[in-house]
Design a protein that fits this description.
The protein contains 6 helices and no strands. The chain has about 160 residues and is mostly helical. Helix 4 packs antiparallel against helix 5 and helix 5 runs antiparallel to helix 6.
Length: about 160
């Protein structure tokens, strides 16, 4: 029982903890840019940190509630592969999101930020189950346009440029 509770807790807290590590690393890299340009990323980091704390607390509370109601179980070797595949299927949206982010980071130097962001958003919306093509294209174009206005026009930040943009 202790092992399954630990696995449950780690699986629920892995994303918030990894996100915290990445935003901490990003925050430390903000010392190299001008203070004016660093205001927006620092604000986003503060909001994400608050949301991570909220997620962390709610996940621990939910885990505590489930752990206190969960009867003691013995893990069987035959069912563990099926249970693992069930967990993968249950968490497929998270897996899709992580894969899309990794691909996005790889293609940014080649396509540039805006083209990569558009492809990232279109593919992520589709993978997460949105099937209305018009909605996907409008949302992706709107978000890329907002990114352009905020980063290029308002903050005058140079974004990665590739062969296309």
């Amino acid at each position: 029982m202790k092992r399954s509770i630990l696995n449950l807790l780690l699986s629920r807290l892995a994303f918030p903890l990894l996100t915290l590590v990445f935003i901490s690393a990003y925050y430390s890299s903000l010392t190299k840019i001008s203070p004016k340009a660093g205001n927006y990323p620092k604000t986003i980091i503060a909001v994400v940190a608050v949301l991570l704390a909220w997620t962390f607390i709610s996940e621990v509370r939910q885990w505590w509630k489930e752990a206190s109601n969960q009867p003691e179980q013995k893990e069987s070797g035959a069912g563990s592969a099926a249970a693992w595949l069930g967990k993968v299927k249950e968490n497929r949206h998270s897996i899709y999101t992580v894969a899309a982010i990794l691909i996005f980071l790889v293609i940014i130097p080649y396509l540039g930020f805006f083209a990569s962001a558009g492809l990232f958003l279109i593919s992520l919306f589709y993978l997460l189950g949105i099937r209305n093509h018009l909605l996907i294209w409008v949302l992706a174009a709107s978000l890329v346009l907002v990114s352009f206005v905020v980063f290029k026009m308002w903050l005058s930040l140079p974004l990665p440029e590739g062969f296309l943009f």
